[in-house]
Amino acid sequence: MAKKILFDTDPGVDDATALLFLHKHPEAELVGITTVFGNTDIDRVTRNALYLKERFDVAAPVARGAGRPLVCEPGPLPVLVHGDNGLGNVTIPESIAGDLDPRPAARFIIDTLREHPGEITIVAVGRLTNLAQALAEAPEIAGLAKEVVIMGGAFALSGHNGNVTPVAEANILGDPHAADLVFGAAWPVVAVGLDVTRQVMITPRDLARLHGEGGDAGRFIAEISDHYRRFYSRFGIEGFYCHDASAAALAIDPSLFTTRAGPVRVATEGIVMGQTIQRDNRIPFGPNAWDGVPDQHVCVEVEADRLKALVMGTLLG
Ligand code: BDR
Ligand code: CA
Question: How far are the Cα atoms of 105, 186, 244, 288 from residue 296, in angstroms, in the given order?
Fold first, then answer.
């Protein structure tokens, strides 16, 4: 039976790729798309999600989510990475005819988890604001989710630290208070952080294949990725890291990853704001800020070639 997936996203070039991967994968049933500010503002990410739904015939409803972080001031928009419109400056219509679900994203998440207790995998690849709002409104939903897969964080494994500050990854820094609440809730979370997503590269050759052999979706991914690729080339990197699609891939095939269990806290202030820190449960620390926080799983290793084959095979197939 296909896995029911609720996709919380800020499309976003790699978000769009992850969404199309889930849309095309036969073992994924997208039950909803909730949007959150991040790669661009909430109006544009929502418009982009509606555009993807309409153009690629995605059945799942789209619900508009949070437009700012819970507590902090919003940071600058990452136009250098995702373009002014969030989709690599590829022209798309300003307004989309498609219907938006009338509910705010947090309410949509609550309703969906209540309708399908124990069945929904949330794949969250943006700021965690919608999930934190849903938990605040209905804390019992933590017991209703099958799993929460997050693209976010950097755990200093294999030398991988932050991508926005030396210690913080973008999705977590974008709303650190929300992230701390989501990691601290009693639902099973798996974090797919930079430690593993930076080990999976989408190369110019992959993009050429998507463009030539991947039909309309492949061509679209190649087109929106051009701006993203040029951003990475400034650092001498050919191609780009596969962030959001790695989290989507975990939802389909968790055997691609090795994980480690332990409670995770997120620093919400100071120069380490946005840092994700998992306690090593083997060390007998004295009383600490991780006490009473449930164990969550953090990805420590990935079978990069196998993951790439799954993502590319699905998008090309
Ligand atoms: C994350 O930030 C965004 O730029 C991407 O869409 C991804 O979710 C990577 O740090
Ligand atoms: Ca994203």
Answer: 24, 9, 19, 17
- Position with higher pLDDT, 95 vs 75: 75
Q: Ligand 1 center to residue 16 CA distance, Å?
A: 11
Q: Which residues lie with the beta carbon below 6 Å from any ligand 1 atom?
A: 12, 14-15, 39, 78, 81, 125-126, 151, 163, 169-171, 243-244
Instruction: State the pTM of this model.
Output: 0.97
Distance 201 CA to ligand 1 centre (A): 14
pLDDT of residue 18: 98
User: Which ligand approaches the C-alpha of residue 162 most closely?
Assistant: 1
Cα of 244 vs centre of ligand 1, distance in Å, is 7
Choosing from 23, 25, 227, 243, the catalytic residue is 243
DSSP β-bridge partners for residue 151: 192
Which amino acid does the sequence have at 125? V
Whether pLDDT at 283 is above 90: yes
Domains and CATH numbers, the chain: 3-316 (3.90.245.10)
Q: Which residues make Cβ contacts (< 8 Å) with residue 304, sequence separation at least 6?
A: 199, 200, 201
Nearest ligand 1 atom, CA 15: 6
Percent of the chain past pLDDT 90, that is, above it, reads 94
Per residue in 237-271, pLDDT (tens digit) is 999 999 999 999 999 999 999 999 999 999 999 99
DSSP structural state of residue 128: S
Determine the atom of ligand 1 nearest the C-alpha atom of 10: 6
Q: In the 8-state DSSP scheme, what is residue 273?
A: T
What are the DSSP calls for 20-67, one per residue? Answer: HHHHH-TTEEEEEEEE-SSSS-HHHHHHHHHHHHHHTT--S-EE---S
Q: How, if at all, do strands 201-202 and 240-241 pair?
A: antiparallel
